[in-house]
Design a protein that fits this description.
By secondary structure, the chain is mainly α. 65% of the residues lie in helices and 2% in strands. It has 14 helices and 2 strands. Strands 1-2 form a two-stranded antiparallel ribbon. A hairpin with a 4-residue loop joins strand 1 and strand 2. Helix 2 runs antiparallel to helix 4, helix 6 runs antiparallel to helix 7 and helix 6 runs antiparallel to helix 10. The longest helix is centred in the middle third of the chain and has 29 residues. The protein is globular, with a radius of gyration of 23 Å. It binds benzoyl coenzyme A. Benzoyl coenzyme A binds next to helix 2, helix 6 and helix 9.
Length: 334
């Protein structure tokens, strides 16, 4: 009787070592890892985790802004907002496809999201209380997203990096539309200006939280930087965002709600106050103002879409069996 050893053979070990060396050399040369390449399990898991969280964020991120589509103040604003929310659905789809190249199916990832086993960005657990929030999300939230995602265009995993190129192009359009909307409101009435300021006051700190915990409390950064998944630390990107945004706030004529914000000539950066990390942890842990609402809405949409998925599967199976429709299975059986 043939016996299978539980332990890998020396040949297997050699080839595993070679594969691992090849992977490390690819990373060291700053070349891309592609789906068919060998990769350590930890790399695959980290990539799936980050891509899935990113995809979920895009999909859940449709809700706060979608809330204002029916109440946009003009046809033009409504068309812009509709297009933006649709872009976010598209970003989610590219990202789920990138996760699929790592062996993580979309159905499974969606299940992880709606059962609370995978995360999405903390920022989408805050409510959108006024129309100015649409502009402020475009300016600050998409602005933070661009800051975080432009370096990810050079991420070591090929399908993720390529998805990020297109996503970033669309995000810059989103950011500009937000800023343009706010400029228009700031040129309007005192009431409109107050609405913008009130929205900036609510979204400033949560936008800084989007970059993740401080570096000394970020369990994943060091490993992800070594693998070329992340190119900068959370704190580096947060600082870059603050430096980029303060002059824009000045041009807009709004005040950022941080008395500690001031230019530091020695550092060549703006100093800023301490983020409320207890609030961040609570929001990520499920206790934010809208966590339950967001997940309930996503779960309901998933259930309501069940018949569409079943119909699409039945249609695909029919095509598969029908030679008139080019069905390969039926053709092969001829
Ligand atoms: N919210 O070790 P760390 C968008 C988690 S979509 C929730 O630093 P990492 C947009 C983190 O996952 C915006 N959770 O982690 C869409 C980890 O948890 P686990 C989404 C957060 O991965 C529509 C733990 O905390 N962008 O822009 O090295 C409309 C420890 O953190 C958050 C992306 O997903 C957070 N803010 O770094 C408009 C970009 N921060 O999994 C706009 C891609 C951290 O260990 N992702 N956590 O349990 C990344 O760049 C990185 O994953 C992060 C976190 C910088 C976010």
């Amino acid at each position: 009787m043939e016996r299978h050893s539980e332990n890998p053979s020396t040949d297997q070990l050699d080839s595993e070592n070679e594969l691992s060396e090849h992977f490390e050399a690819t990373i060291a040369r700053d070349r891309r890892i592609e789906p068919r390449d060998w990769m350590p399990e930890g790399y695959r898991k980290t990539m799936i985790r980050q891509i899935a969280q990113h995809a979920h964020s895009e999909i859940i991120g449709m809700q706060p802004e979608g809330n204002w589509i029916t109440r946009a103040p003009s046809l033009r604003r409504k068309a812009i907002l509709l297009a933006k929310v649709q872009d976010e659905a598209g970003h989610g789809m590219y990202l789920y496809s990138a996760a699929e190249t790592l062996g993580a199916g979309r159905a499974g990832l969606t299940r992880m999201l709606i059962t609370g086993r995978q995360k999405y960005s903390s920022i989408f657990n805050y409510p959108t209380l006024s129309y100015a929030d649409v502009g402020v999300i475009g300016w600050l939230v998409d602005g933070a997203a661009i800051c975080n995602q432009v370096p990810l265009c050079r991420s070591s995993y090929g399908p993720y990096a390529r998805a990020m190129v297109r996503i970033c192009k669309e995000e810059s359009f989103h950011q500009r539309q937000g800023y343009e909307l706010l400029l228009t409101m700031m040129r309007g009435t005192a009431g409109q200006r107050a609405m913008v300021q009130e929205s900036v006051d609510r979204f400033w700190w949560p936008s800084l939280m989007m970059f993740g915990p401080p570096d000394d409390q970020s369990p994943n950064t060091e490993r992800s930087m070594a693998w070329g998944i992340k190119r900068h630390t959370n704190d580096e990107l947060r600082q870059r965002f603050v430096d980029m945004t303060v002059p824009q706030a000045g041009k807009l004529g709004v005040t950022l709600p941080d008395p500690g914000l001031r230019w530091n000539a020695d550092r060549g950066h703006y100093d800023f106050g301490e983020v409320d990390w207890a609030e961040f942890r609570a929001v990520v842990g499920g206790a934010g103002p809208c966590n339950a609402e967001r997940i309930a809405r996503r779960r309901a949409a998933h259930q309501e879409g069940e018949w569409v998925r079943e119909a699409a599967m039945a249609h695909a199976a029919k095509n598969h069996d029908d030679p008139e429709r080019g069905g390969a299975a039926a053709e092969a059986a001829r």
